[in-house]
Specification:
binds adenosine-5'-triphosphate; binds magnesium ion; 4-stranded antiparallel sheet
Length: about 240
């Protein structure tokens, strides 16, 4: 699905966090969003997801303006938001419950639990899991949504490096094979380079997009990624505002 953001503005009281922001995302495109801490990445996703109301601007999905929340967005917020009173399986299948298709979702979820390192955790409660396991459960919950656009806020921040790379590959498959449009906020430059078709580097609050970087290499591999020192350096400088 195609996303258009037009002149979007959002302020907290008198502090402009998102100011006149415009950008477009093509159907099936993978966008990485990088930027300094506190620049407004989570705020932007909250506005897109309809949790925060923009003061001005428009959000269009496939050319149609949306107001408030849209079922076309699957949102994974920065904090995992698992319900402590629900089991892991029930948490993962939350959207199935909301949309009255829980049985089908339970089946899908069960088939993915092991891949997500959650085998045997179906009847456990969130407090019994590690931080990384909770994050994988929240990611699986989002990944099982049928929505066309995924908004992911640091989905792998709490994961160890091996699981993280496995989840990155899983996400890439999701984008390629299932034609999902993805906006991924991350602090990990390598993650953004490896996964994104285009990287948006945000500046200070209210500054908006400092630079767009297209990743043109089609056959990105881990080996290729290791050789991207110059690109990595360029992005770091942009985030720090010294280029
Ligand atoms: N509820 C709130 N009330 C007032 N200001 C807020 C609120 N939430 C966030 N802010 C401010 O808005 C700015 C942007 O916050 P946001 O969480 O979007 O940043 P971020 O880019 O996601 O940062 P990080 O990379 O650390 O997650 C920050 O300066 C923050 O202090
Ligand atoms: Mg954030």
């Amino acid at each position: 699905m195609k996303l258009n953001v037009e002149n979007l503005s959002f302020s907290y009281e008198d502090q402009a966090i998102v100011r006149n922001l415009s950008f477009s995302v093509k159907d099936g495109e993978f966008i990485g969003i990088l930027g300094p801490s506190g620049c407004g990445k989570s705020t932007l996703l909250n506005v897109l997801a309809g949790i925060l109301k923009p003061q001005s601007g428009r959000i269009l999905i496939d050319g149609k303006e949306i107001r408030g929340s849209s079922p076309q967005f699957a949102y994974m917020p920065q904090n995992d938001l698992l319900f402590p009173w629900k089991t892991i399986l029930d948490n993962v299948c939350l959207y199935g419950e909301i949309h009255h298709c829980k049985e089908a979702m339970v089946e899908k979820a069960r088939s993915q639990m092991a891949r997500f390192g959650l085998g045997g955790c179906e009847s456990k409660f969130p407090e019994e899991l590690s931080g990384g396991m909770r994050q994988r459960a929240a990611f699986l919950r989002t990944a099982l949504c049928e929505a066309g656009i995924f908004l992911l806020d640091e989905p792998f921040g709490a994961l160890d490096v091996i699981t993280r790379s496995d989840m990155q590959d899983w996400l890439r498959e999701l984008c390629t094979n299932l034609q999902r449009t993805i906006l991924l906020v991350t602090h990990d430059t390598d993650e953004a380079i490896y996964l994104s078709d285009r990287i948006l580097v945000m500046g200070a609050p209210g500054e908006g997009i400092r630079r767009e970087i297209a990743i043109t290499e089609q056959n990105r591999t881990r080996e290729w990624l290791y050789e991207q020192g110059a690109l990595r350096g360029k992005i770091h400088k942009l985030i720090k505002g010294i280029q």
